[in-house]
Amino acid sequence: MTDSELARHIAETAGILLLALQESDLFEGKALGKAGDRTANAFIMEALRTHRPADQILSEEEANDTARCAHARVWVVDPLDGTREYGERRADWAVHVGLAIDGAPVLGAVALPAVPVTLSSDAPQPLPPLPATLRMLVSRTRPAAEAVAVAEALGAELVPMGSAGAKAMAVVRGDAEIYLHSGGQYEWDNCAPAAVAAAAGLHVSRIDGAPLVYNAPNPYLPDLLICRPELAERVLALVRDLGTTAAA
Predict the structure, then answer these.
(1) Residue-range domains of the chain with CATH
(2) Largest CA distance in the chain
(3) Nearest in space to 44 (alpha carbons), one of 70, 82, 89, 6
(4) E strands within 2-156?
(5) What is the pLDDT at residue 141?
(6) What pLDDT digit, counting tens, does each position of 89-110 carry?
(7) 179 Cβ contact partners less than 8 Å away, ≥ 6 residues apart
(8) How far is CA 203 from the centre of its chain?
(9) Nearest CA among 38, 8, 43, 29 for reference residue 86
(10) Global model pTM greater than 0.85
(11) SS3 195
(12) Could you tell me the pLDDT band of residue 248, with boundaries at 50, 70 and 90?
């Protein structure tokens, strides 16, 4: 099984487990979210250790072992991105399985089990034509001020949504054109989404245009831009004009 096939298979299977846990009605609300995090993480860790025992893993649900930084190949996973949305039984949550090699997000899979669909870097889909009115994805609970300002300058419609993976995949699927985030994320929030988006031909970077770099000792990676390539230069210029710089 190739790395891409493994990423997709693990993400899809974790999604099936998460749906089954929801349907069991054994947990509700925050308890359901916690159970989902633990269940998906245990499965993903076991699957990766079985099929790629020489590789390192960075997971949101595991202790940060910086010994991984001495290795070229590191799987960066978020077993349940959008724990709140999952606990609320919404559709905008995801499973992220990404692989970084020498710090670059080379491949990944993002499962959206409640949709249901899984998007993978090895099976990109064509991008649709740009619509007359652009759409920008923002957090449904705390939209970033920079994103709101850029959307206003572009005349773009704001589209609130839950998890980072769901927002990134909305751009990949053609349901929006821009995902600009400056409110703080970690590597597991965007590694797999970045790999899938880049494979689909989208622009992927920090909000100052710098590349996304993974497998750092501190996995904090606070900002992200995923957008249609024909919009990237304009969006990045608007961010600069607003005086926003990517955090160190």
Answers:
(1) 3-120 (3.30.540.10), 135-241 (3.40.190.80)
(2) 50
(3) 6
(4) 56-59, 73-81, 94-101, 104-112, 117-120, 135-139
(5) 80
(6) 999 999 999 999 999 999 999 9
(7) 136, 137, 167, 168, 170, 171, 224, 225, 226, 227
(8) 14
(9) 29
(10) yes
(11) helix
(12) very low
